[in-house]
């Protein structure tokens, strides 16, 4: 395993921050200052500030996030997703985010490799949402969305399908991850999102998981090749 990957997983930090620690000389492997491109094996002793670093047991859960909760440790007055979890899961981090007014499938993990495999654009992992609007989409706007809508941070691409039982509700599938992308895309065309609920994240789906509840998941199908 690469040393930066080992340090990142052990300390719960990004690989970039792990690289910074290694370059600063703060990480030791077998009593020697670690080199940034080194690899480590199970028998190696990795130290940071005199303490041995150990890999945490990988944990991943799927949470059905309710509306009104924020994906942060500090809600600044609002409840957070961590209020829904027992102490044992407080170290897990969300893979991607859902804004405060959105609900649905939220994966949380301490496995940095899994988070990378599910969020890096090159893997194009799909997410599915049920989205309700303040009024039905015009046919012309539906076609515009299918072709791509220009936003400040690039062109927003997604597939959208009208739900037959409700003319204001749509199924949206996308692999991009721009901030508040669905809301901003529809607002750019003059619509307001009244409900946004994620049902699937790659191979993981809510099924009958109740709002505010979570379950452990098998992450094997989500690993990138």
Task: Describe this protein's structure.
- This protein is an alpha+beta fold and 225 residues long.
- The chain folds into three domains: 50 residues, RNA-binding S4 domain (Structural Genomics Hypothetical 15.5 Kd Protein In mrcA-pckA Intergenic Region, Chain A, Roll), CATH 3.10.290; 80 residues, Alpha-Beta Plaits; 76 residues, 2-Layer Sandwich (Alpha-Beta Plaits), CATH 3.30.70.1560.
- The protein is built from five helices and 15 strands.
- Strands 5, 6, 7, 8, 11, 12, 13, 14 and 15 form a nine-stranded mixed beta sheet that branches.
- β3 and β4 form a beta hairpin.
- What's the SSE pattern? HHEEEEEEEHEHEEEEHEEE
Question: Class of the largest domain, according to the CATH hierarchy?
Answer: Alpha Beta
Instruction: State the CATH topology of the largest domain.
Output: Alpha-Beta Plaits
The radius of gyration over CA amounts to 20 Å
Residue stretches low in confidence (pLDDT < 50, at least 5 long) are none
CATH architecture of the largest domain: 2-Layer Sandwich
**What structural class do the secondary elements suggest?**
alpha+beta
Query: How many helix segments?
Result: 5
Number of DSSP-assigned strands: 15
Strand content: 25-35%
The shape is: elongated
How far apart are the first and last residues' alpha carbons, in Å?
17 Å
Number of domains: 3
- How many strands, what sense, and barrel or not for the largest sheet? 9 strands, mixed
Portion in helices: 10-25%
The average pLDDT score comes to: 93
Write out the CATH superfamily name of the largest domain: Pseudouridine synthase I, catalytic domain, N-terminal subdomain
